[in-house]
Please model this.
Amino acid sequence: MMLGEAANLTSAMMALAFIQQSLEHLRPAARLQERLLFAPRLILSVLLFMAGVGAPVLGMHPALLTLALVANHLFILPFFNGPYNGGADRMSLLILLCLAGTYNLPDAGWRELALGYLGMQLLLSYVMSGWVKIVNPDWRSGRALRDVFLFSAYPAGDNIRRWASYPGLVRAAGWAVMGFELAFPLTFLSRPALLAGLAVAALFHGANACLFGLNRFFWIWICAYPSILWLQDRVM
Model:
């Protein structure tokens, strides 16, 4: 995969995720200022998607569109007093900044570094998440995941909370998640292993979306997958 192909694929996928996010803020109950912030984001995202798939509207290039989206994001951040949706919003900004660098930096080496940084951050996001869990005795015992099912506001239905009554299953699920996240860097050693690892990671995010309603994590994390595929081709 070439740098331009990876950047265009990432930008098209990110634009679709941004379109979904923007539509959530344009609902009838949204505040006027909120609509004024996300209406331009929606328009810019549609244009970026068209440019990413090779059908630019009015000659709009991803370089200009990503910079415009960065500017728009700088207005959104203070409105919500920071990344309002936690990790998903931080990943959205990270992908956007890396793409803006990939499209706009003048030197080819710096452009590669921008997209490569995104790929490395994706890899680290899994291994660091696993490390934070495994050093926590509550995660090792299964209590942390049990409490998520039992007390969190996230589970999508009351029937999901019943899973907390199966401590063995919850403990095994927790160790499976930690083991996968910590082992994820090993998938970088070969293309089949990386593809399999990303498929498992996508299923993991999909399960979180179905069980806990964390749908934004599913879409935005997948947007970064082309960057790590390109990075593997670049360094291996």
Remarks:
- The mean pLDDT is 89.
- The chain has one domain: 3-235.
- Residues 85 and 141 are 28 Å apart (CA to CA).
